[in-house]
Amino acid sequence: FLLSHYTVATFIVPIVLYVVALILFFIAGFKDPGLLRRNTNSFGCHENIIKVVHKGVYKKTRLCPTCQIAKPFRSAHCADCDNCVLRFDHHCPWIGNCVANRNYIYFYFFLLFLNLTLFLIGGLAITHIVVFFQEFDRSSKNYVAFGLCECIITLFVIIFILVEMLFVTGLFFYHTYLIMSNLTTKEELKKWYNEVDKGKVS
Questions:
Q1: Confidence of residue 68 (pLDDT cuts 50, 70, 90)
Q2: pTM of the predicted model, to two decimals?
Q3: Which of the residues 64, 67, 84, 92 is marked catalytic?
Q4: Helix/strand/coil (H, E, C) string of the chain?
């Protein structure tokens, strides 16, 4: 339908966008998110806060009891990976990896290109139905039912994309908000839970 009614670009562009999204998906999934090396020499300390020397000055920092390292600022221990991760955002089950310091940008652009793909394919699917009914023979009594049967796959695509967009588009705008606020998902959730504990959020 696209090839017969429009230019070949309407067929190629969604494929290119999807391939780019797929490449970014695999990079985000396989790239080291910022795993911190464990300390084989135990501190012999089970307290959460310890003192370390930084540039000749004693400073308090958090100790990871599992990795036995002084955790850098904004790092966290991932329960799924069982490792401390630099500037930890969240563990994503869809990419099977943590989203953190070194792969966050690939994860964000993966969401961007996936949204562009969904919007474009959704727009083309709606266009297909509109143009199909404009060209359809309306002399038949049940032309609407016949037309919908002819476009059943296109209707399925539209429903599928709408469901996908509830999650993917929402996640994209949420991470856009986090970037603009200079926050990670973990920090945002911690901030929200603190507000709930203080009674600011019902």
A1: confident
A2: 0.80
A3: 92
A4: CHHHHCCCHHHHHHHHHHHHHHHHHHHHHHCCCCECCCCCCCCCCCCCEEEEEECCEEEEEEEECCCCEECCCCCEEECCCCEEECCCCEEECCCCEEECCCCHHHHHHHHHHHHHHHHHHHHHHHHHHHHHHHHCCCCCCCHHHHHHHHCHHHHHHHHHHHHHHHHHHHHHHHHHHHHHHCCCHHHHHHHHHHHHHCCCCC
